[in-house]
Amino acid sequence: MDWLKLLDEIDSFVWGPPLLILLVGTGILLTIRLRLLQVVRLPLALRLIFSAKNDGDGDVNSFGALCTALAATVGTGNIIGVATAIYGGGPGALFWMWVAAFFGMATKYAEGLLAVKFRSVDANGEIAGGPMHYIEKGLGMRYRPLAVLFAASGVLVAFFGIGTFPQVNAIVDSVQLAFGVPVPITAGIITLLVALITLGGLQSIANVSTKIVPFMAVFYVATCIGVLAVFADRLPEAMQLVITNAFTGTAATGGFLGATVMMAIRSGVARGVFSNESGLGSAPIAAAAAKTKWPAEQGLISMTGTFIDTIIICTMTGLVLIVTGAWNGGLKGAALTQQAFAAAFPVAGPYVLTVGLVLFAFTTILGWNYYGERCCEYLFGVKGIKPYRWTFIALVAAGAFIKLEAIWLIADIVNGLMALPNLVALLGLSGVVVSETERYLAHLRAEEEEETEAMPSSEAAN
User: Which of 108, 93, 82, 95 is nearest to 27 (CA)?
Assistant: First the structure.
């Protein structure tokens, strides 16, 4: 039996239309029940990133929790994943990435809210939260098998999937290609850095993430804006391509083989979900650790993660690929993105992209280390944390030398299996999400009234 072919078929089934429809459908339902909260409350959510009071129980401040989640979310998918989506579905795929992100913001909001609502404290005095906890405590003990499935899948993804092999491979390959550094040297440096940071736990990971994540996001977006400035005259045409091709498909042109509307939808939605992880249940593990007494407040802050990841960063990558014309050159993956950057900055472009790719991949390793640790703690208690950390570090070291396609297919399958129990919980607990949201909004209205009453009458009149 051809195991690789079998795994590929299972992977295609797991990440096929049923799961993608369930992921987006959950977002649509939450959007309706929350009355377009991701639009109406987005300005408040963006303000809260920097102005949250951090006056509740938790291990890190809200900004640290967001940066830890973004560290894991903003990764190679924002560079290579977008290129893969446009390679498979044409420029129209970017539009469907936006659609997935729009509804995904409501999903990410609900995940963050539930994570804080149903979190607990482990035997080490650290916050324990995430889908496995809101499944068990929110839906009830009879749903514990779903919580165990999620946690087991989370550990496997951290060990063999997003958390290690693809990221390490992306770093060592790109550094060798751009700077000529031998793979063993880069692998050794990565392993040492990961060990130094992750053995310190969440505080250490959050401290590093709050420094690297904002820098890497601004650095990458600024570079993309530079490329778009060089090709500014093509920007209106690029936007038109994105909108029209989303509904008409893309004809074969240059090295591009053509794509139907269905290919654009599937490529855009699948890569959008894979990039921002809305509905997969990973980000709420970090959200649970935030210092807040209002679950809805952290939900709003978590929601901005999807906005930053897809609406801003993925959009920048997509537009760079389209305005430079690289999308129809026949290349795919990292080579496609590299060609686009080189079109604007022939000498510096590939190096700048490499720096961005390395930072994105490295922070993903850090974020997923924490996700896997919390899943491991749920399954085995605090005694499992140290063995988990050392195993993770060993796998990071080995990741540079392992290029087994079967491992990546298994990881992709398990990643999809994380989503299923999480989505069941989100649907089952949607009423809790709505009631907690109403409670928080009532609190905000009461605060506003108190502030108005406290103002001198002349200021209140103005």
Answer: 108
